[in-house]
Amino acid sequence: ETGVTQSPTHLIKTRGQQVTLRCSSQSGHNTVSWYQQALGQGPQFIFQYYREEENGRGNFPPRFSGLQFPNYSSELNVNALELDDSALYLCASSYGTGWGMDTQYFGPGTRLTVL
Amino acid sequence: RKEVEQDPGPFNVPEGATVAFNCTYSNSASQSFFWYRQDCRKEPKLLMSVYSSGNEDGRFTAQLNRASQYISLLIRDSKLSDSATYLCVVSVSGNTPLVFGKGTRLSVIA
Fold this sequence. Notes:
The structure holds two protein chains of two kinds.
Chain A: E1 5-7, E2 10-13, E3 19-24, E4 31-37, E5 44-50, E6 53-57, E7 64-68, E8 74-78, E9 87-94, E10 105-106, E11 110-114
Chain B: E1 4-6, E2 11-14, E3 19-25, E4 32-38, E5 44-49, E6 55-57, E7 60-65, E8 70-75, E9 84-91, E10 99-100, E11 104-109
Parallel strand pairs in B: 2-11
Antiparallel strand pairs in B: 1-3, 3-8, 4-5, 4-9, 6-7, 7-8, 9-10, 9-11
């Protein structure tokens, strides 16, 4: 096990609602990256937080936002949910900026279904 | 052209077979290369990094061809437990994230 935990494991929401997903990073890691994995696709980078600040963002609209706390845990918030937001949301923790130079360890993911 | 492209699969092979997965990447500035394994409904797990000189880990061999922007993974003596989706992953050093391919599903059959 990686030591990265995510909650909840599953979630069902309806269109237009808001959702908050949580991630606790592995001990000693200060960087959390969030990815969205739609069915049959590889994970796509949403954004990364390093020492409580956003450190890069993928091609996702502003209704996807995040936070990182002093203990390096992180939240992903999605507003105005759309059907296409249904996916597995993965967080990965690493030490340093994690830009491919540090191994990223993934949590088990949160499976979000939007009806 | 997608940044990372993989064989579509699925690959259905008998136990003991040798199977090879291929992957191409579009960004010639890419510096880091990985293969991740993802079991059904689970998170991706790092299988191995891919180095310029090629590298081996037991039954698994990874190769990189920078000139052709091509990465491969060879699995020898396939086991039932190798059944999973294999994700090719690339990143550019500096402020860029991991870029995943769609993955190739492998089923090893008894």
